[in-house]
Amino acid sequence: MALDDPHAQPSEPPENDGPHEDRAIRDAAPFAGDQALPCGRLLSQAWEQAQDATPTTDPHAMSCPHCREAVEGLATLNAATRALRAKDPPGLQALARRVMNIVRAEVRLGRLLPLADAVLDLRIAESAAAKVLRQAADAVPGARAATCRLAPTGEGTGVQVTMTLAAALEYPLPDTVDQVRRSVIHAAEHALGLAVTAVDIIVVDALEPFAPPAPPGSKKATEGGA
């Protein structure tokens, strides 16, 4: 076929739309204001995959509780947004800004956990409770909390705590873990009013041994001050 033939077709072979689209979603730069879920996946990626008409075969998306919880929350927001838009259609940019503000607030706060109050239906954000429990763990000598997750157990007010920890090896590890567990339970019950049913602690790192300062006049102290 002549090069100047007006009916000439491109020489490149057509691409498969399915895999190409998946790669585009996976490799796309995160949206402004996007949030990373606790599992490491971006909120926008979890939502895009959930909206795909083709059933997913991604093992992570099928089993990850963080992605599932985020998608369920976004589905509720999506339904509310559609109802609001039908009632009072706003500008596209204003709508996107309002929805993303709500999403960011929900991701930062985490789930709402019930307090052990027999009279009042009180709840606390997971992020606020986790901060208090990490501080309780850090108060134990030779322990530093890395992550802290809280999840309700059953239909009551019980809460399970899962914490990752860095521990100093100059202390017996079982003693450190036991002290952290008791400190976390005490803070949860007395400072927050949470009914903790279990505290699972995983040691994921070792803290560097603390080096005491060299005595005045020693060779090491003299070299350090030179």
Notes on the protein architecture:
Helix 6 crosses helix 7 (about 175-190). The chain is built from eight helices and five strands; from the N terminus they run H-H-H-H-H-E-E-H-E-E-H-E-H. It is α+β, with helices and mostly antiparallel strands and about 230 residues long. The strands form two sheets. It has a three-stranded mixed β-sheet with strand order 3-4-5, with helices on one face. A two-stranded antiparallel ribbon has the order 1-2. The chain has helices at about 15-25, 45-50, 60-65, 65-85, 90-110, 125-140, 175-190, 220-225; strands spanning about 110-115, 125, 145-150, 160-170, 195-205. Helices cover about 45% and strands about 20% of the residues. The N and C termini lie far apart (about 80 Å). The longest helix is centred in the middle third of the chain and has 23 residues, at about 65-85.
